[in-house]
Design goal:
single chain, 447 residues, Growth Hormone, Chain: A, 0% strand, globular
């Protein structure tokens, strides 16, 4: 059985893949230290759900501008210099976040990170450089594994920083330290994967909107890119408001949300390191994408049905006090009324938390599968000299979805209640799953 799996699961060059894995892991570690807490920065300044959506949209909105340019530049000048630029600005943005004295400064820090932070897209291009069509999905899954490990260790570090300091500034400065470490990993361990002979701008066909239109007008590529955008639009509405949802429905603060991210990380690591290669070999990338969409749809619907039951230790007055006290600045604005409604006292139980933990399982598995599958399908349809461009465009469309999703989901949250974004998202994801299944079936018949 083991021999059979070796034959069907493509191998990777560990020596070349390991440095990419390490730099992504350390970089993601910095991000995940503050990710479970980011909505609390906004909430502590009296922001409404829609304003929290604006805060969360700042980073991907800036990435919409920056990532395609950085991806194309990595095709022209190589992966290593672009990684260093993006990592340096990410480090700076975390320092700014730790020093933030207003909601506007929080948003500015996220804009700076997004404008130059093309770490993921460039790392994906580097892995595409050193893998072939058979091993690419598994290779791109290495980035997912780095994310998973970051989701485990980042929130643990965040928990420790909060326990030691009781300030949201401490995790931000901790993230800056890990971001600086990722710069050192790139400087001393990463070997350039895109040699000068292979460099150019998207196969010498131009850049910017011309390249975007050229890719979108190619039928299969256009369909895959639109699918990437649509699923991310739905999923990031879930991801961006999960912390606010658990705060208003279950009474979970930063520590509780960090624990949830640890669970997500454990599942992501298991999927990326043990199962994605097998499932890709068995189902193919189209089948893998369909499975991922089905799991995401199930998880979103289950999340929307989470019982409104604060955790057993929840006390409304203590939660409000802790939220305000943990703000990164002790200004008058921080001490105002919260812009979100905390759960009332009473009805405390474990039912809501346990239900949500079950819902996280299909969501985490689906999230671990969908982007490696779609990005592998994209790279199979372009030349090696276009990897940075097509993956940069893919990342840009993800950023466009990430910019729109918090605004739309935040508005729905504010107008229709906390469960509405998740139930609507689950229904839309179900539709995408059905359409992808039909496309996969017709593609097999015509091949």
């Amino acid at each position: 059985m083991a021999d059979q799996e070796t034959k069907t699961t493509p191998s990777l060059d560990t020596r070349r893949v390991l440095p990419v894995f390490l730099l992504v892991f350390v970089d993601v570690l910095g991000l995940t230290v503050i990710l479970p807490l980011l909505h609390l920065y906004a909430a502590a300044y009296g922001a409404t759900p829609l304003q929290i959506g604006v805060t969360l949209a700042a980073f991907p909105l800036a990435q919409l501008i920056g990532v395609p340019v950085m991806g194309a530049l990595s095709d022209r000048f190589g992966r290593k210099p672009l990684l260093l630029i993006s990592q340096a600005t990410t480090c700076l943005s975390f320092v700014m976040l730790g020093l933030a004295a207003s909601l506007e400064m929080v948003i500015l820090s996220r804009l700076i990170d997004g404008l130059f932070g093309a770490n993921l897209a460039t790392a994906q291009a580097a892995l595409s450089d050193i893998t072939d069509a058979r091993s690419r999905t598994r290779g791109l899954g290495v980035i997912g594994a780095a994310f998973g490990l970051g989701f485990i260790f980042g929130p643990v570090i965040s928990l420790l920083a909060l326990e030691l300091s009781s300030s949201l500034a401490a995790p931000a400065f901790t993230a800056a330290i890990y971001s600086f470490a990722s710069i050192l990993v790139t400087l001393f361990m990463f070997t350039e994967t895109h040699p000068p002979a292979a460099r150019g701008f998207g196969g010498r066909s131009g850049s910017g909107f011309i390249s975007i239109a050229r890719y979108l007008l190619r039928p299969t590529l256009g369909l895959l890119l639109l699918l990437m955008f649509a699923q991310q639009l739905i999923f990031f509405g879930y991801e961006s408001l999960l912390g606010l949802f658990t705060l208003t429905r279950l009474g979970l603060l930063g520590r509780g949300n960090a624990a949830l991210f640890i669970v997500i990380g454990l599942i992501l690591v298991l999927v990326q390191l043990r199962y994605i290669g097998r499932w890709s070999a068995k189902l193919g990338d189209r089948g893998l994408a369909t499975l991922a969409l089905a799991l995401l749809a199930l998880g979103l619907l289950l999340t929307g049905l989470t019982p409104a039951a604060p955790h057993p230790f929840y006390v409304r007055e203590l939660a409000q006090r802790d939220l305000l006290a943990a703000a990164p600045s002790q200004t008058e604005a921080v001490m105002g009324e919260l812009g979100v409604e905390l759960p009332p006292n009473g009805k405390n139980s474990l039912a809501g938390v346990l239900w949500l933990l079950v819902a996280l399982i299909p969501v985490s598995i689906g999230a671990g599968l969908i982007r490696p599958a779609l990005n592998s399908l994209l790279t199979q349809r372009v030349s090696p000299g276009e990897y940075g461009g097509i993956l940069g465009l893919s990342a840009a469309l993800v950023s466009a979805a990430n910019a729109a999703a918090p605004l739309a989901a935040g508005l729905i949250f504010q107008k229709a209640g906390e469960t509405a974004p998740f139930l609507i998202g689950g229904a839309l994801m179900t539709g995408l799953c059905l359409l992808t299944g039909l496309w996969s079936g017709s593609a097999r018949q015509t091949s």
